[in-house]
Design goal:
Elements (H helix, E strand, L loop, with lengths): L1 H14 L9 E8 L9 E8 L12 E8 L12
Antiparallel strand pairs: 1-2, 2-3
Amino acid sequence: MRATMAWMMGLGVVACGDRAVPPAPLLRLDPAGPSETCPDGGVSVMSGLDDNGDGTLQDGEVDDTEALCHGAPGAAGAAGA
């Protein structure tokens, strides 16, 4: 009986031992100057997993990038009072 209990406890330690924590998903926003995609500039929105666990999305961790463009400047409005 004791041998069985010891074996079961050992199995529990192996089964519930150190589990790797999956990398956290992160976003990074970088300003983007004028380009063909965004003539008036905008923001690059990058996403990916924090593979090294430092809490910052590094260039090598970026899985996807989308452009968020500024709109074209509008016409000047009337002076306010």
